[in-house]
Design brief:
This protein has 19 helices and no strands. By secondary structure, it is mostly helical. The longest helix is centred in the first third of the chain and has 38 residues.
Length: 482
């Protein structure tokens, strides 16, 4: 039996499949999964490229600028996690109402979600602006110039909060209505603008002064304002399945509660993950600004394998969801193994790249000898867990497809949270244990990723392998083949 939240997740997958017009219960497995995954991966890479472009340009300013932005970014990520409640909620509710043919109700869900997103964005923006010194002060950075740059960066992002944090919800409105291509084009346009103006504001050009990390923040806000404007223009022109009117933006208790009820679990899980990451960064900060810069850049590099695996995870969730509805367990089993194998291959490629060319890859971001050396060590430690990280991410999609959202969340929360005591232990911060310093903190991340991947994969494999329907379908499949 599926509980209410699981039914909502399952319904969203089915609506998504209907919008894609793909029948995944028959035909070749690999081509279907790849066709479904590639657009998702493309969208994820566009999102990732925003921060990566900033890091590449700021690396030319210096490691301290990267460290400042990396420190402030933890709080912007937290804000995005909070706004995931509105994005997820509007995607589910709009997709349901469009599926039922009730476009008027879909527009009310969309309007309420956008209005709540703007309000929450403003509140979070005011909070981060007023308490930026205290928030950055949590890291107790030794280099005051890094501390000051991080505070200034966070304040600029806070001023643009209504645009920076609201655009994902606007994209969710179109995605929920079955148009995932438009958010991709809008976001790509914003990325292109960011790529053009980033170096102009960071290094200065003509009458524009060189603003360094502040320039990166300003370029990001202008790019997000541009995307916000494009979304608003498309809505006003009526280029959406649903039409937003003044009535749509009138808060309704029942509608608002449903959006929040559906979206908060997703936001809470994401915010909790970021909170754990902030604690790890706090431990790393005791070694100075350079390790923070290295970890920030390393996260962007690792995101390449992470985002690719996430694309296949979403595709597997959709594939599994449709075959779950058709009660085709042997096909689920085969698709699961195929997708995990592809993800493992992605992780293996990342492992080989990090081990063989870690310093060369890192030098593309921060061309400083100390940073390159430390970055090579960091990527070498991450290399050990890439296969298992990809295994964990892809398996999560399989769980979502059969309506079981608890196992991935439980494994993620428990083991990600365990990184904090493990980091203190391995670095030598507790019980008189003779740790290995900074590298111990990074090993805590890599080791827990290994355990998460093995545990989640084993859990789903055991679950599906023991399904009697799988064996019955397998025997029928083999009999037909012979």
């Amino acid at each position: 039996m599926l509980n209410a939240a699981d039914k909502q997740q399952f319904l969203l997958i089915l609506v998504f499949l209907q919008s894609m017009n793909q029948n995944l219960t028959q035909g070749p497995i690999v081509p279907s999964l790849v066709r479904l995954a590639l657009p998702i991966i493309g969208m994820s890479f566009v999102q990732m490229a925003y921060n990566m472009v900033d890091m590449i340009w700021l690396g030319r300013v210096g490691a301290n600028a990267v460290a400042a932005v990396g420190t402030a970014t933890f709080f912007t990520w937290f804000g995005i996690s909070l706004l995931m409640a509105m994005k997820s909620g509007v995607e589910i509710t709009v997709s349901q109402e469009v599926g039922r043919g009730d476009k008027d109700k879909a527009s009310r869900y969309a309007g309420n979600a956008v209005l709540m997103a703007v309000i929450l964005a403003v509140v979070f923006g005011v909070f981060t602006f007023l308490f930026s010194e205290q928030l950055i002060g949590f890291f107790d950075l030794k280099e005051m110039d890094v501390n000051d740059m991080a505070i200034s960066y966070l304040k600029i992002i806070a001023l643009g909060a209504p645009f920076y944090y609201t655009t994902p919800t606007l994209g969710g409105v179109f995605t929920g209505a079955g148009n995932s291509h438009l958010p991709f084009r809008m976001t790509s346009a914003g990325l292109l603008l960011n790529i053009i103006i980033d170096p102009l504001f960071i290094f200065g050009w003509g009458p524009l002064p060189a603003l360094g990390s502040n320039g990166a923040a300003l370029a990001t806000i202008l790019a997000q304002l541009f995307v916000f404007g494009l979304f608003s223009w498309k809505i006003l022109k009526g280029e959406s399945i649903i039409q937003l009117t003044k009535e749509s933006f009138r808060l309704t208790k029942v509608i608002a509660q449903k959006i929040i009820r559906l979206g908060v679990p997703v936001a809470a899980n994401s915010a909790l993950f970021i909170s754990f990451s902030i604690m790890i960064a706090k431990i790393v900060s005791s070694w100075g600004a350079l390790p923070i810069a290295v970890q920030s850049v390393g996260a962007q590099i690792e995101a390449i394998s992470w985002m690719t695996a996430s694309g296949f995870s979403t595709a597997l969730g959709a594939y599994t969801g449709q075959n779950f509805g058709a009660n085709k367990w042997y096909r689920i089993y085969k698709g699961f193994l195929v997708t995990v194998s592809i993800s493992v291959l992605v992780g293996l490629m990342a492992t080989l790249a990090f081990l063989g060319f870690g310093e060369e890859i890192f030098s593309m971001f921060i061309p400083e000898a100390d940073a390159i050396h430390l970055g090579g060590i960091y990527l070498g430690i991450l290399a050990v867990s890439q296969v298992f990280m990809c295994m964990e991410i892809s398996t999560s999609g399989a769980f979502y497809g059969i309506g079981k959202t608890v196992p991935p969340s439980l494994v993620s929360i428990v083991l990600t949270g365990s990184r904090i005591p493990l980091a203190l232990l391995l670095s030598g911060g507790v019980m008189g244990f003779e740790g290995i310093g900074l590298e111990g903190v990074w090993w805590s991340v890599s080791l827990t990723s290994i355990v998460k991947g093995l545990l989640l994969f084993g859990w789903f494999y055991w679950l599906i392998y023991n399904r009697p329907e799988r064996m019955e379908e397998r025997n029928a499949y083999l009999a037909e083949a012979t």
